[in-house]
Every structure is written in structure tokens, then in C-alpha cells.
Automatic annotation (TrEMBL):
InterPro entries named among the record's database cross-references: GPCR_Rhodpsn, GPCR_Rhodpsn_7TM, Olfact_rcpt, Olfactory_GPCR
Keywords: Cell membrane, G-protein coupled receptor, Membrane, Olfaction, Receptor, Sensory transduction, Transducer, Transmembrane, Transmembrane helix
Function: Putative odorant or sperm cell receptor. Odorant receptor.
The name this protein goes by in its record: Olfactory receptor
Pfam families attached to this UniProt entry: 7tm_4
Family to which this protein belongs: Belongs to the G-protein coupled receptor 1 family.
Species this protein is from: Ursus americanus (American black bear)
GO cellular component, one term: plasma membrane
Main localisation: membrane
Record's bilayer topology term: Multi-pass membrane protein
Keyword Cell inner membrane: no
Domain G-protein coupled receptors family 1 profile: 39-288
Location relative to the cell: Cell membrane
Gene of this entry: LOC123796484
Transmembrane portions of the chain: 28-46, 58-76, 96-118, 130-156, 192-219, 240-258, 270-290
Amino acid sequence: MTNVTLVAGFLLVGFSDSQELQIVYGVLFLVIYLAILMSNLLIIILTTLDLQLQTPMYFFLKNLSFLDVFLVSVPVPNFIVNSLTDSNSISTLGCAFQLLLITSFSAGEIFVLTAMSYDRYVAICCLLHYEVIMNGGACVLMAGVSWAVGGLFGALYTTGTFFMPFCGSNVIPQFFCDVSSLLRISCSETLLVVYTSIGIGMCLCMSCFICIVISYVYIFSTVLKIPTTKGQLKAFSTCFPHLIVFTLFIITACSLYLKPSSNPPTVIDRLLSVIYTVVPPVLNPVIYSLRNKDMKRALMRLVHKTCGQESHSI
């Protein structure tokens, strides 16, 4: 029988072996993390307090912002602390929780983006029945299912990954626990549970992708029938931000989880992990807010209201 040493914890390498560079990366990620928190929390506040933003589109946008905040808050603060304190160890339980939360929030985000595409389809193709179809109960149900299915998939994915023993090297050449690195140090001869969960994930992603493609085929065919160019541009302006966000997220997710793992990981592997975890939460507020007149008006109303209350108190 081969003598193997089971892994009791892991070491997250990060981006550099140099402590000085790790501090620079830690400060950079801290700035990005604070920007993500402030921008997404601003969207959450506006879509919650402003009465004119109480629509299905902004309800799903609020859920997307929540998922973005939760997703980026799993690996990034841990990486910042590790970089600034020169500590890169993580327990097996901590690694499992990281994988559970990242996969859960990522899957939930894909389902919320799918719900948003359905909302745009109903708004453009079934305008007269929009309020009946996308009522409050339906929106809550769709959002609840997105969170619940995302959590179930994350639990299945994590259970399948940590069901197998790890032996040999305990080094994870990423700034968070990712599946490809864990599979590389697994000493299990059979990965049936892991591949089953990956297969389920691929089926779910493909289902969401097909639903979104079908929705946009109907949307574009309807929009092109609008007689005025101004009307077409207005309809497209509500669809393109969602399409950009979904395309970026699904491409990076598939590249990270479905690309054959290289040993050792390349710069591209680490870059994809950064794009997957950091870039969508950064871009979502920019894409949905800076070019959105409703969000700008809501922000101005909030500022005027806040300044008015302060002047009255003085």
C-alpha cells in the first residue's frame, strides 16, 4: 500500500512570492473592494428607497448587487488580510466554505441574470400583459428560486470536491480555493461525484444560456419591427447592459471551471480567476447605473432629500 500524507490545510500562493509585491496587490485589491462595496450598496439603497424604482427590472438588479457584494466578499478580504500580514494559510474547513459560497453566489448570479432576460422579454414582447406576468409574487418567486438553486448547487459541488481525500502538496496557486487546484492535489482514483456535480452545473448553465438566447431572439425580432429609430434605441438600451454583463460572466466562469487545468497554473489562469471574481461586480454598477437615467434621477432625489433634511435640522 502506498504511504500518503493527508492534507490538513492549504497554502494560498496569491500572485507573487515577493512580500513587497503582495502588499501592493493587497492595497490594490482593498481599493477595488471598497469601490465595489460602495457602488453596489448605492444601487441597493436606491432601488430600495426610491419609489419610482420599484419595478421588476430594478428588483432583480438589487438581487444582482447583493450577489455581487457577497461573491466578492468571500475571497477578496481574505486575500487582502493574507497579503498585508504575510500569511497565506487556510484551513480545510475554511477552504470548503470558500468554495461553497463562491459557487453558490456564482450560480445564483447566473439564475438572476436569466430572470432579468425573461423580464426584458416580457417587457418588450408582451408589454400589455407585463404587469400581470411580472407581478410582485412572480418576481419574489424567481429571485427565491435563483438563490435556493444556487445554494443547492454550491452544496453539491463542495460536497463532491471535499468528498475525496487530498494528499501530497497542499499549495493552491490561486488567491482563493478553486476546484481545478483542489482536483490537482486529490489522491482519489475516482472523481465520480465531482464530475457529476460539474455535469449538473454544465446542464444548468446551458439551460440558462439557451433561455437567454431564445429571449433575445424574440426581443431583437420585436425591436426591429419598431418603426422609429428612437424607439429601437430605447429598447436596445435596456437590453444591451444585461447582455454584456451575462456574456462577460458566463465566458469567464466557463473558462475558469471548464478549461483543462494546467500544471503549474499559467498567468492566464490567475487572470481569469481575477476577472471572474472581481470584474463583474465592478462593471455591473457602471453598466447599469452610469448610462441609466432613472438611476441618475433617483440618486439626485436622494441627495436633495438628504440635503433638505440636513438644512431643516440646522
